[in-house]
């Protein structure tokens, strides 16, 4: 058997590849496999290289690769010279043949430019597959494994939550070690930048840190700038100018003018100082592309990742705000730790390397605080309320943003809310399970959800960066905060202070949907006995089951055990995709923007079925499914209009849509009803603020229902037809992005393909949901009683095609 293979109680283990195999056949397969072969070859090459190499030290710091190559070339052909990456203290000289190495070692004295070198055989390291560094997620997984038995033993969910904090929080020892590092960095920087100040912010100090969290530092150079300006204006020679405590200006300050230097230049300087002058610091790297550029580093002794930024006063202040909130109510920390942990397990948070499409810890913490501002009675005050409680000396404005709040929790009256952690955690999930993310902007400042349409005109599309900068230059004053751009997205979470910044602006639509879906799952679980009651048999309960990693939870099935067969298609509200004219109308509608948008979507839906897919009127003989509201009124081939008045019809059909049937009018008639919406929206439970939800104050939209028939398989072979047509028309846009092309594709199919055996007659019912969940239009598709299997293909096509086509139509015709 190969030397790398050992037998284990569970079968075999390959030491080289670090893989377990259960039996002999899988072992044989592995040994013959590519991975094992490649690693065996790599190991052989490395070993041969080691034998041909020498370890060299003692050369001058600035010695170059060429210098060493030239020197060692006299002993044999030199293949490569590799310096140690960080400090240039040693080098490996690799010869092409082993003779070169032997000759070099046989010479006793080596010298380059009078500098004595030390030359030794290269140390032979056992070849080991370096496992990629464990991710944070894997670390957390391990913590959970160790935490599980402790949590199972706890008596209550409250106790479990405290246990989570205790196990994963940053310990006092680690905090102290970090403080010492901050002190060391401060001392070094003071040497180069007199009067500068290094401040820690973020999770190391905001009371929500975990043991592996990074160290965020802010280098404040304001006082150094003053010092430099004073030195410059002084008649004394610059080198003799001194700071308050008698230190003199270092040569670095003679090289760079802090008042005019670009942030990129300053960061390069910071990086150079860190690299050269702070012992233990390595892997220093300037990341200039981040929203806030930083210098990243690693501190060896504490195995710690750190960031230094030079323009981040707002983050220092929001860190103080989080500290204050922790001090205001002791329930915040256990809630935040538990929710952060849950979010990690469900892969909702934890962007690799800081940026990414998921929630970051700061955003998640703000979501918890917002929820606590909205609990009944509130656990935490709004930021505006806090401002009112601050005294004059606590007033604070940074970059034009009001960041005033009391410095001590004592200034804030305690909450009257007495709910325990177990109840609050469940309430957090139900709060966000039914939250209208698409239609809202979350404001911690006001402690309420603002309608997203009220931010039209302040979004990125309207104001360009250059325009803002120009404005600021013209006025010769700091940029007016409210002129800045807000990036709207699937989750809009306003920073509590920088009110033009969407803290979750990076979040993808998929992440937002996953977040809400997981909140819904968690809410359901929190209603079960397994959450509330300790298992007497030592089984997982409470938080243990809540922390089941993503994808391992039970799949939800219908009562008959089948997967969900529901035929519905949703069209989400995406403000950014809407044309300017419609956005202006929505903005005017204020809180009532949803019915207006719904009406426009319905118009587009009709256009898709009628004009693009050429569906005809539904047959009168199509049976009505029992218990189906609204269907009884169904007029075949048209939309079911419930109580639509001619006035509503007219007002909603003002901007001519092509087609003599005027689908806009039929759809508008359907929507402009006085009858309440679907049961889903009329039953709408409580709003995020705990009040009874409403879709708007205007006329309540209806739940229009249309009956359509289709005689051809308009979904089959579309791609091929489109490709052929595209060749002729040079219109190469993707599926669903051109009305004319898609219409042509359908016409082609109708002309060239045979009819389906039995025409498909189906119904589509539109419902507006929102206010108590993300604003969207839900299209319920009722399949025909005949040709169901056939229809399923049509439905799968519609699932993808319809939302895209509706977006296109809304963009181009409204
Ligand atoms: P951790 O490092 O454990 O993930 P953190 O709170 O330190 O948590 P970082 O991403 O390191 O998170 O950010 C450091 C600090 O920078 C935050 O605590 C917050 O003060 C500020 N910050 C982070 N992200 C944002 C953001 N999107 N908008 C505004 N401030 C932010
Ligand atoms: Mg951090």
TrEMBL record:
One GO biological process term: mRNA processing
Main location, first listed in the record: nucleus
Gene3D superfamilies from the UniProt entry: 1.10.1410.10, 3.30.70.330, Beta Polymerase, domain 2 (3.30.460.10)
Family annotation (SUPFAM superfamilies): Nucleotidyltransferase, PAP/OAS1 substrate-binding domain, RNA-binding domain, RBD
A Pfam family annotated for this UniProt entry: zf-met
Biased composition (Acidic residues): 464-475
Name this protein carries in UniProt: Speckle targeted PIP5K1A-regulated poly(A) polymerase
Organism: Gadus morhua (Atlantic cod)
Organism lineage: Eukaryota, Metazoa, Chordata, Craniata, Vertebrata
Gene name linked to the record: tut1
């Amino acid at each position: 058997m190969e030397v790398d293979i050992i037998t284990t109680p569970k079968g075999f283990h390959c030491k080289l590849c670090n893989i377990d195999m259960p039996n002999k056949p899988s072992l044989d397969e592995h040994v013959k496999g590519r991975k094992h072969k490649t690693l065996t070859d790599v190991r052989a090459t490395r070993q041969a290289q080691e034998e041909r190499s020498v370890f060299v030290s003692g050369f001058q710091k600035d010695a170059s690769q060429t210098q060493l190559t030239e020197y060692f070339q006299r002993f044999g052909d030199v293949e490569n010279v590799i310096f140690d990456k960080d400090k240039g203290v040693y080098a490996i000289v690799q010869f092409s043949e082993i003779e070169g190495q032997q000759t070099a070692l046989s010479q006793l004295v080596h010298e380059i430019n009078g500098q004595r070198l030390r030359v030794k055989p290269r140390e032979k390291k056992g070849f080991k597959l370096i496992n990629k560094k464990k991710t944070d997620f894997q670390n957390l997984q391990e913590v959970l494994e160790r935490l599980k038995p402790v949590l199972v033993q706890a008596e209550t969910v409250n106790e479990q939550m405290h246990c989570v904090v205790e196990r994963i929080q940053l310990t006092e020892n680690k905090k102290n070690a970090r403080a010492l590092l901050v002190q060391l960095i401060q001392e070094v920087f003071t040497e180069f930048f007199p009067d500068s100040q290094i401040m820690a912010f973020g999770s190391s100090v905001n009371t929500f840190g975990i043991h592996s969290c990074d160290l965020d530092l802010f280098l404040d150079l304001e006082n150094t700038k003053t010092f430099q300006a004073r030195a410059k204006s002084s008649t004394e020679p610059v080198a003799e100018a001194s700071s308050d405590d008698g230190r003199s200006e270092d040569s670095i300050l003679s090289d760079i003018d802090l008042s005019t230097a670009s942030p990129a230049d300053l960061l390069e300087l910071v990086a150079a100082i860190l690299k050269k002058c702070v012992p233990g610091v390595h892997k220093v790297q300037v990341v200039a592309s981040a929203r806030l550029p930083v210098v990243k580093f690693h501190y060896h002794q504490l195995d710690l990742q750190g960031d230094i930024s030079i323009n981040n006063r707002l983050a220092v202040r929001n860190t103080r705000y989080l500290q204050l909130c922790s001090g205001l109510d002791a329930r915040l920390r256990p809630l935040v730790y538990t929710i952060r942990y849950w979010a990690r397990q469900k892969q909702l948070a934890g962007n690799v390397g800081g940026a990414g499409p998921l929630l970051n810890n700061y955003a998640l913490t703000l979501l918890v605080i917002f929820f606590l501002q909205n609990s009944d009675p509130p656990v935490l005050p709004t930021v505006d309320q806090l401002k009112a409680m601050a005294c004059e000396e606590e007033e604070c404005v940074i970059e034009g943003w009001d960041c005033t709040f009391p410095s001590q929790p004592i200034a804030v009256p305690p909450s009257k809310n007495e709910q325990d952690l177990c109840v609050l955690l469940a309430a957090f999930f139900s709060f966000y399970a039914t939250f209208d993310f698409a239609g809202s902007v979350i404001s911690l400042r006001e402690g309420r959800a603002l309608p997203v349409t009220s931010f039209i005109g302040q979004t990125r599309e309207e104001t360009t960066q250059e325009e803002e900068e120009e404005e600021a230059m013209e006025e010769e004053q700091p940029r007016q905060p409210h002129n800045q751009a807000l990036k709207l997205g699937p989750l809009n979470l306003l920073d509590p202070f920088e009110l033009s910044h969407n803290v979750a602006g990076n979040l993808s639509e998929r992440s937002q949907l996953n977040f809400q879906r997981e909140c819904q799952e968690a809410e359901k679980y929190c209603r079960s006995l397994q959450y509330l009651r300790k298992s007497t048999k030592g089984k997982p309960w409470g938080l243990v089951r809540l922390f089941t990693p993503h994808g391992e939870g039970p799949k939800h099935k219908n009562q008959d055990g089948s997967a969900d067969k529901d035929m519905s298609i949703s069209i989400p509200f995406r403000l950014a995709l809407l044309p300017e004219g419609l956005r202006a109308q929505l903005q005017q509608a204020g809180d009532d923007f949803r019915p207006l948008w719904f009406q426009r979507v319905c118009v587009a839906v009709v256009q898709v079925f009628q004009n693009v897919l050429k569906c005809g009127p539904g047959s009168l003989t199509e049976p009505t499914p029992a218990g189906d509201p609204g269907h009884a009124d169904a007029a075949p081939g048209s939309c079911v209009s419930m109580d639509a008045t001619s006035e509503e019809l007219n007002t909603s059909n003002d901007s001519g849509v092509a087609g003599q049937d005027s689908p806009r009018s039929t759809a508008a008639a359907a929507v402009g009803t006085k009858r309440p919406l679907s049961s889903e929206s009329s039953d709408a439970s409580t709003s995020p603020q705990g009040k009874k939800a409403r879709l708007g104050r205007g006329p309540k939209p209806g739940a229009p229902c249309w009956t359509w028939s289709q005689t051809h398989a308009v979904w089959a072979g579309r791609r091929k037809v489109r490709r052929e047509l595209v060749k002729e028309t040079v219109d190469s846009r993707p599926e669903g992005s051109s009305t004319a092309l898609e219409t042509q594709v359908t016409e082609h199919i109708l002309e060239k393909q045979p009819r389906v055996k039995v025409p498909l007659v189906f119904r589509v019912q539109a419902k507006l949901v929102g206010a108590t969940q993300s604003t969207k239009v839900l299209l319920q598709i009722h399949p025909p009683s005949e040709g169901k299997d056939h229809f399923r293909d049509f439905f799968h096509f519609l699932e993808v095609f319809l939302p895209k086509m509706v977006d296109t139509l809304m963009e181009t015709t409204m």
